[in-house]
Specification:
- With about 300 residues, the protein is an alpha+beta fold.
- It has three domains: about 80 residues, Rossmann fold (3-Layer(aba) Sandwich), CATH 3.40.50.20; about 130 residues, D-amino Acid Aminotransferase, Chain A, domain 1; about 60 residues, 2-Layer Sandwich (Dna Ligase, domain 1).
- It has ten helices and 13 strands.
- Strands 8, 9, 10, 11, 12 and 13 form a six-stranded antiparallel sheet that branches. A four-stranded antiparallel sheet has the order 4-7-5-6.
- Helix 1 links the parallel strand 1 and strand 2.
- Helix 1 crosses helix 10.
- The radius of gyration is 19 Å and the shape is globular.
């Protein structure tokens, strides 16, 4: 695997998702070592970023701020080091749920209704406008950090205060109750859709990383026609914010009414998805006949073109 030169697997970092990033990066590191790649672990929270200049390319397994939000991508661009995943703008937009939704809404991609919430907001008016239950979340966090489900009138204020601890930009979002799904993106291909069935109230941090009873259904249960349509639209949603390489687009299904086919609503995009034993892109890749090692090499191989366009 000399074609890759010396590769840094970047993981850890300073965000609230540090521990998850370490798990992802460790799995990627082990995979590349198994395949004979000259690879070294690199934690930007523990090492001077200038040291990255000794590497030929970087596999980004950082999650959250300072790793998934365009900052590390900008530094690598300046040093002319090819890296996995999306470029600066797309990474920054993808990290910001509010601006992602604004972009999607502008180009006609369906997304649940939402409102920005501040300490001066009329919480009662927002609850009435979006309906209950609703979700309140930090706009710039991942792994469901700071998210809560507001079920009763008057609960938005407490949800806002929790989310505001994680980010100064907070959004409230309409509840869509027909199930949560995800579409992995690998190059120009949308992977098989996975339906996520948590056993607690919603797919929170605990359900994602700590519990073993969350169900992941692949096949997803959607009709073949519906799955193909959503895969196509997921690619459009991914590209609408300039994403490239690989990633993941999450969506919700509405609850069915009578004979009407349920609608789908795109929720957010993840430009540096998890690569842990609970992670969704490796699961979807496996369903498509792609092993974990093949997935990792495929992602790294995209850096040979060095076209982090977004």
């Amino acid at each position: 695997m000399n074609k890759f030169g010396k590769v840094a697997v970047m993981f850890g970092g300073k965000s609230g998702e540090r521990e998850v990033s370490i798990k992802s990066g460790s799995a990627v590191l082990a995979s590349l070592k198994r395949q004979g790649v000259n690879v070294v672990a690199f934690d930007p929270a523990m090492q001077a970023l200038s040291e990255i200049s000794q590497f030929d390319r970087a596999f980004i397994s950082l999650h959250g701020r300072y790793g998934e939000d365009g900052t590390i991508q900008g530094a690598l661009e300046l040093m002319e080091i090819p890296f996995t995943g999306s470029g600066v703008m797309a990474s920054s937009l993808g990290m910001d749920k509010w601006r992602t939704k604004l972009m999607w809404r502008a180009v006609g991609i369906p997304t649940p209704n939402f409102e920005v919430v501040t300490e001066k907001s009329d919480f009662g008016v927002i609850e009435q406008k979006l309906g209950l239950p609703l979700f309140v979340k930090p706009a710039n966090e991942g792994s469901s950090i700071g998210i809560s489900k507001v079920k009763t009138a008057g609960g938005l204020k407490a949800g806002y205060e929790l989310a505001a601890k994680a980010d100064s930009l907070v959004i409230a979002e309409q509840f869509v109750g027909g199930g949560e799904y995800t579409v992995g993106i690998l190059g120009d291909e949308a992977l098989p859709i996975i339906r996520i069935v948590p056993k607690n109230d919603f797919y929170d941090f605990e359900a994602k990383y700590l519990r073993d009873d969350t169900e992941y259904l692949c096949p997803s249960g959607l009709s073949a026609e519906k799955e193909k349509l959503i895969q196509q639209e997921a690619m459009q949603a991914f590209r609408a914010i300039g994403c490239s390489g690989w990633g993941r687009v999450d969506f919700l299904m509405d609850e069915p009414e009578g004979n009407k086919e349920p609608k789908h609503y795109f929720l957010e995009v993840n430009t540096s998805p998890g690569m842990t034993d609970h992670s969704l892109v490796p699961m979807a890749a496996k369903a498509a006949g792609i092993s974990f090692d093949e997935l990792v090499i495929n992602i790294l191989s995209m850096t040979l073109d060095h076209k982090n366009v977004g």
